[in-house]
Structure formats: C-alpha cells, structure tokens
Amino acid sequence: MSLPNPNPDARAVVTGASSGIGEALAAELAARGHSLILVARRGEVMEKLAAELREKYGVEVEVRAADLSDRDARGPLVAELAEREISILCNNAGIATFGPLTELDPGYERDQVELNAVAVHDLTLAVLPGMVARRSGAILMVGSAAGNMPIPNNATYAATKAFVNTFSESLRGELKDSGVNVTLLAPGPVRTETPDPAEASIVDKLVPDFLWISSEYVAKVSLDALAENKMRIVPGILSKGMSVAGQYSPRSVVAPIVGTFYKKLGG
Ligand SMILES: NC(=O)c1ccc[n+]([C@@H]2O[C@H](COP(=O)([O-])OP(=O)(O)OC[C@H]3O[C@@H](n4cnc5c(N)ncnc54)[C@H](OP(=O)(O)O)[C@@H]3O)[C@@H](O)[C@H]2O)c1
C-alpha cells in the first residue's frame, strides 16, 4: 500500500498547519508532490508558509483560516471538504492544558474537547465517504501517548487523545481492503521549537537533548507509516517508553505517578 498519488485536482488537508508538527507535515507532503489545504486560525502565518511551499515544490496550496473549536466556524470547512477530492487528511490541530480541572477555564476546556476530539470526528466524517467511493485515501490521526493512560492534572487532554487513539485504531479495522489507510501518530514529547532557557518547562529541563525528536522527523516517519498503512507510529525512544508504560501498566498504578509529574507542569 502507499499514499494516494499526487494529483493536481486532489488536496492533502493538514489541520494545525501554522506551527509545529502540522507545519512539518505540510512541508513533507509538499516535498512529496501533494497539493495542500492548510487549516489553522492564523491565516497570515499559513499564507507565508503557502508561498514558500508553492515556490519550492511547485504545488498548489490553499489556506483556510478557521477556528476548529467553534462549530459555526468549522461548518463551512467541513461542508467544503465533503465536496472536494481530498486524498489525505492529517487531523493534527490540538491544544493541551495542565492542572486541576476545577482551576482551569471551563470555556477553554470545552474548546479543547471540540478541537481535539469533535473536530477530528467531523473532518473525518466529511472526507471519508469520498475516499471510500474512490477506493483511495489516507488519514493520519494525531493522538498522543497521553491518550493511553489516565493523567490527573491533564484530564481533558488525556481524555481527548484517548478518543483520537481509539477512534483511529477502531476505524482502520472497518476500512480493511477499502483502499483507505488510517494511521495513528501517538508521540510522547516532540520538540517543536528550541525553548528559551528562561522559559523552559520542567519537561525541557528533565529530558536530555539526545532523547528529543523534531517535528520534521515526526512528519517524515508518520507519512512513511501512513503510506505503509501501519496501525500506529510512536516515534523516538522516549515516546516508545511512555507508550509501553501507559499501555501495559495497571491504570491505578500509573495514574498517581504521572499525576504527580503533571501537577508540576500545571505550575
Ligand atoms: N509536541 C508534542 O510534544 C506532542 C506530543 C504528543 C502529541 N502532540 C499532538 O500533536 C499535535 C500538534 O502539536 P504541536 O506540538 O505541533 O502543537 P503546536 O505547535 O502548538 O501547533 C498546534 C496547531 O494547532 C492549531 N490550532 C490550535 N488551536 C486551534 C483552533 N482552535 N482551530 C484551528 N487550529 C488550531 C495552531 O494554529 P493557530 O494557533 O494558528 O490556530 C497550530 O497550528 C497536537 O494534536 C498535539 O496534541 C504533540
């Protein structure tokens, strides 16, 4: 199996394309010849990236500035994608919060559920019928190692990523022999930018440099895994360690240990 062949009429959609892993996925897809639709809120940042990718790789790049946590703002994009030939969907946009739920902003927690889980569901429902009808398509779901375990002080994020992890691995079982690939990217920490030492988080301080993986590396191995229709890609030693610990340790044992660590992230 492989990714759908690049085609000037088809588009690969990347959500969260204005920074980090999404920006790297967009660049890697363009380098492989795919024309793109970039989605995030910051339109001007994506226009700059789009110009660079058109110039460097000669692909078509469209920008859709939309707040995916807002159902009304998301609706027109969902409707548009349902009508277009979407060859690849990277459900990547996501946010996280740290700390006890009662101390967090309830509105932002709801937005997190909308963005990390409901928008992923909506966008997948929009593009999947066309992919199945064409017997060609590929969906990369960006979950997290955090979705494998209960994480006190990161409850909304861990729960939304549990949704993505399970949705991805369940859906791919339905799509066997359909011509549509579905792969879950479930990383641990990915260094999306070099931290300012004055503002480095506890994770930045604790994890030695050689254990960090870059967004560019994650994008490349994730698209390779999607082309091979792997069930799950967990890039890097640290991610693999977290993944195994989270999946195979009793949840009652894991929860207090990771909860103590994440309490420090909550500040
Ligand atoms: N980095 C890690 O260590 C790590 C580990 C495991 C999983 N992940 C997952 O990987 C994905 C990407 O993470 P990242 O580290 O690359 O994050 P990032 O650099 O913060 O990028 C997040 C992207 O999502 C977009 N976004 C945020 N809120 C949005 C909204 N309401 N509507 C539309 N787009 C929105 C942002 O763009 P705008 O601000 O322009 O909207 C940005 O492009 C996330 O799903 C994250 O949970 C990351």
From TrEMBL:
Associated pathway: Lipid metabolism; fatty acid biosynthesis
Q: Which Pfam families does this one have?
A: adh_short (PF00106)
What is the designated name of this protein?
Answer: SDR family oxidoreductase
- Which regions span the lipid bilayer? none
Tell me which UniProt keywords the record has, alphabetically: Fatty acid biosynthesis, Fatty acid metabolism, Lipid biosynthesis, Lipid metabolism, NADP, Oxidoreductase
InterPro entries for the chain: KR_dom, NAD(P)-bd_dom_sf, Sc_DH/Rdtase_CS, SDR_fam
Organism of this sequence: Rhodococcus xishaensis
Lineage of source species = Bacteria, Bacillati, Actinomycetota, Actinomycetes, Mycobacteriales
Looking up PROSITE patterns in the UniProt record yields: ADH_SHORT
